[in-house]
Automatic annotation (TrEMBL):
Class of this enzyme: transferase
Pfam family, one: Glyco_transf_8
Protein's name in the database: glycogenin glucosyltransferase
Protein's organism: Ameca splendens
Pathway where this protein functions: Glycan biosynthesis; glycogen biosynthesis
Gene that produces this protein: GYG1_1
Amino acid sequence: MWGLIPVFDCSQLLLLCPSQCKPSVLSIPTTDARVDSPQPTMSDQAFVTLATNDNYAKGAMVLGQSLRNHNTTRKLVVLLGPHVAEPCRDALHSIFDEVIMVNVMDSGDAANLALMKRPDLGVTITKLHCWTLVQYSKCVFMDADTLVLSNIDELFEREELSAAPDPGWPDCFNSGVFVFRPSNETHKQLLTFCAEKGSFDGGDQGVLNSYFNTWATADISKHLPFIYNLSSIAIYSYLPAFKQYGHDAKVVHFLGKVKPWNYSYDSQRGEVRGHSASPDPCHMHPDYLLQWWQLYATSVLPLLQKAYGDAPFSTGVMDQSSPYRGSWMHFLLSHLMCLGAALPSSSFKLLKTRINFTRT
Ligand SMILES: [Mn+2]
């Protein structure tokens, strides 16, 4: 019944009404306002990311800041694993609307109990937690190793499960960027599925592709254009296409083993260190890498410095104020971040303590 009202404007309604009811028609504008703005409440939609360690937390901060810089109207949520340091959490609070600690296996239900026997799927299960964000009607999940280049709020017009093709096997979607509808029921089903079938690639992408197994064939509107999840692998495997369409890219995904935070940045020269400018499928595109570091150095690093105070941490940024600049110690310190990614965190911590690690 309410749906019929906007068809008429006030004068038409007045003509239809008997004279004795005319005054009440004046109250119509409130109804009109409701119907004329069918946009969903922006506050019930969110971009969601996940950080399982301090490095990914930095990635999440850069991603969150890139969404803010492009004026998203949606909420920003970060899910945190238990190993993220407190100062990183504090810094995340300044960028994200919600910082949610995820206790990986805590509910003790049948699906979780079965999953306890699969510690290899730990991070995957943490990511699946995004379906429990039922305070939101629709969300876009983005990996912490993605960077937003322009406003992408239009993704909320898509339905679950929308994602872009994976560059390695395009009949699978890449789970670095996807649209979903939070639901405790779906979450439970995903956990059960995970416990029973495992993951064909050992990660969340395998689980999600097996669960949403009609993605490749059922509904083309659920195929996001590649520009919403552009990876370096794709750039160098089809360079002419990148030259033709690359300028439209909206989201860059630093897919692969080496992440932006594994490099270091010379803030004086504005250069990323340890990265070759020559096109190599193993390397990421230098322009995007530079954009990541510029955003990190200008917007994220100040937050981290505030949160850490006098406590030492690896900034990844070299500058003139470093007391070790130009020395072998500086070289060693600036590359420790890369080393940290390859070593177990306990040995990295030990190394940091041994050489009296300072801010570099
Ligand atoms: Mn990723």
